[in-house]
């Protein structure tokens, strides 16, 4: 058998992996706690150096990836912003950044770090295309590097609220008369007849996306105009008719900021996915600005929640964290075991937080913890889980709380404990692993291995005599041949054949080239190709070869494994395995 020894390290940690479903976004956050001048973020811009400029209601912020430099209006100084309320930021990519405020426009010379006031008027729209364009009242002005001059005046008296300029036309958003289009011959058309236009964005395919205050989102593709509106009873509609901003990520997805959350548009179905305020997610539902940076990360400016950021390419996986509110997250940040029931609910065993249920349909959590009431979980430190489809129960092994059976219909727990006066009781109240065996269970505990009869609650203890007396077991597995494998206690692994009661102990021996690499084994796992894998605490991964009764080792030095301390493994697809380590995870393909 030929094994492809290619291990890819993916450099981020996750709490758990959930595949095959749309997930909420995990955001990073920048607020006044990190040095932002104000949590109301109105606009963002990335300059030619890659730095992010963030305009707030109280100053402009330059973020270099590590810290903020704050710029504010200073009394009696010509070398400062004209006003602290920053509504829009753009630049010429040649060393100048422009800040639009209700009192005018300031320009910053990046090299000299000096400000110049370009115009002192109420400016409500600004756009840079070869030159700087600005709108005051119903007039458009153009800056030639020295001064502004009048470029065009709308015949209608409606105030201009948004601009988008390219080689062929200027799109002009107004306060109450919708959108106008001005071609290079100054011929004016009126493609959208009503609405207060808040933003105009052109995507990579050439379509225009026009946001309004009350009329929803417009899409203009040539002569065709579509209007997307919020529908109260349709969760796939846009989350609000109050649109503030649009941006496109590196994958071509359109992101829309609204008064009530962030939306991603799906062009194939003409529907939207909503992302609204939640714990560990969007910090505030009122989104004022969106920026896609050069590396593909999306920056979201909110009205009272500062900056939220994420990278769509890394959202294949989702991080679930501990939450104060039961429905919104885990009861404890330390997760030991996860299993799935027939309804695709996830059951999550935590250390200190009891048992958690995650419903992927509602995306809500439910906590089950120990209490003084009868029928509760016996202990909050959960070490083992097994979903029993035959009985429709979850078996839960705890640390010091014995074994629990949870009836999924009644949500009541039955408890089983060690009794030193009863040899048919559990050998220990510390349960480390549970697996099915012929309509019964095999249980690994701190006092060895036993077969548990679910009907009677009685056990049969195994491996009680020398030379293979097993007094501690942390992991158990039955392979495709029916052989029981046991690990734990620093004694390598044992294999046991039920039919002839043959037991073999594999221990590390430096003299054996293909012996087991470590006596400290964390997990035993068989993939869909019937390959048996051992995850070690110090020497990487061992693959057991049935035909030669020996092992092949994969480690950090030879195979670029993330770490030689490997905790667990699961199969992503046939031939592709994911190994979790103490510093991240690796994929073997």
Brief account:
The chain has 589 residues and is mainly beta. Helices cover 1% and strands 47% of the residues. The two termini are 14 Å apart.
Could you explain the architecture of this structure?
By secondary structure, the chain is mainly β. The protein contains 1 helix and 52 strands. Strand 43 (483-487) and strand 44 (493-497) form a beta hairpin. The protein is elongated. It starts with 6 loop residues before the first strand and ends with a strand. The relative contact order is 0.08. Mean pLDDT is 92; it is low at 1-22.
Chart the SSEs and their pairings.
Layout: E1 7-10, E2 28-30, E3 41-46, E4 52-56, E5 59-63, E6 68-71, E7 88-91, E8 96-101, E9 104-109, E10 114-119, E11 125-129, E12 131-136, E13 139-143, E14 148-153, E15 160-165, E16 169-174, E17 179-183, E18 188-192, E19 197-202, E20 208-212, E21 217-221, E22 224-228, E23 243-248, E24 254-258, E25 261-266, E26 271-275, E27 287-292, E28 298-302, E29 307-310, E30 335-340, E31 346-350, E32 355-359, E33 364-368, E34 382-388, E35 393-398, E36 403-407, E37 413-416, E38 431-437, E39 440-445, E40 448-452, E41 459-462, E42 475-478, E43 483-487, E44 493-497, E45 502-506, E46 521-526, E47 532-536, E48 541-545, E49 550-554, H1 556-559, E50 566-573, E51 576-581, E52 584-588
Antiparallel strand pairs: 1-52, 2-29, 3-4, 4-5, 5-6, 7-8, 8-9, 9-10, 11-12, 12-13, 13-14, 15-16, 16-17, 17-18, 19-20, 20-21, 21-22, 23-24, 24-25, 25-26, 27-28, 28-29, 30-31, 31-32, 32-33, 34-35, 35-36, 36-37, 38-39, 39-40, 40-41, 42-43, 43-44, 44-45, 46-47, 47-48, 48-49, 50-51, 51-52
